[in-house]
Amino acid sequence: MNYIDPHIHMVSRTTDDYETLAKMGCVAMSEPAFWAGFDRGSVDGFRDYFRQLTEFEPKRAGWYGIQHFTWLCINAKEAENVSLSRQVIAMIPEFIERPGVLGIGEIGLNKNTRNESIVFLEHVQLAEKLGEQILIHTPHLEDKYQGTRMILDMLNDFPKLSHSRVLVDHVEEHTIRHVLDAGFWAGMTLYPVSKCTPQRAVDMVELFGPERLLVNSAGDWGPSKPTAVPDFILAMRKRGHSEGAIRKIVYDNPLAFFKQSKRFTMAA
What is the pLDDT of residue 169? Predict the structure, then answer.
């Protein structure tokens, strides 16, 4: 089955992973800007990173027939440095109109601090000013519930923001209802040691239905599996779900969300 991975960090993966993903049915992916495994010390480090996301990774994906899209921001882990964050945010308009850039992301919270909140709000202000979609990172483990509620509360301060153009990622059983009830898209991230397993993701599909629900691998520097979406497809089949129901979550839903970006074009 062809699928789209709406959140995967290919800068941290080998070229062999692109080939494997293509063999597994991945036809498109989106890569949010994120932490590089260490804190960058200058805005020029982010400029080079944005060039990699918008110039090199689409080319590398294209070698295997995969369409690559991206999102731009300074991530929550580095947002404690408000001065650097503001320099990066000011640079985003230089890159935002490049082909394949879907919007601002993955912004959000890491440890739910004041500085992270300041930088999150300034990203949202930029997205609203430019009319861009938003992809949001919610915190890990014990910080997730509080951080998700903080994010949703902050988004309420933007009455003109279209919730249908915002994806809140890394939802789990205790946060998914809050996200969906607020009218946002929800992303389930499949990690081997945290976040969500394929089986738990199927549970959430069965509890909440498939509308505005996405599933992703977020394959990155840490313990992660870039082929996690095919694992979810198999778990859905084992539960007896139809091919059409599975396709809705792994292909139709990400396609519908991405189509709202003015720079999204899907090859036939």
Answer: 98
Residue 235 within a domain: yes
Amino acid in the structure at residue 128: E
Total domains, the chain? 1
Within 10 angstroms of residue 59's Cβ, the number of other Cβ atoms is 9
Structural domain that includes position 185: 3-258
Q: CATH number of the domain at 116, please.
A: 3.20.20.140
Does residue 263 form part of some domain?
A: no
Give the per-residue pLDDT at 229.
98
| Contact criterion met (CB below 8 Å) for 204 and 212 | no
Question: What are the beta bridge partners of residue 31?
Answer: 70
Mean pLDDT score of the chain: 96
- Average pLDDT of 238-248? 98
Tell me the torsion sign for CA atoms 172, 173, 178, 179. positive
Cβ of 203: how many Cβ atoms within 10 Å?
A: 15
The 10 Å Cβ neighbour count of residue 52 is: 15
Distances (CA, A) of 72 to 19, 34, 65, 209, 214: 25, 9, 23, 30, 20
- State the average pLDDT over residues 105-129: 98
| Type of residue found at 226 | P
267 occurs within a structural domain? no
Give pLDDT tens digits for 191-236: 887 779 999 999 999 999 999 999 999 888 788 899 999 999 999 9
230-234 own/partner pairs: CB under 8 Å, 24+ apart: 230/3, 230/24, 230/25, 231/190, 231/198, 232/190, 232/198, 232/201, 232/202, 233/1, 233/3, 234/198
Q: Is residue 106 part of a domain?
A: yes
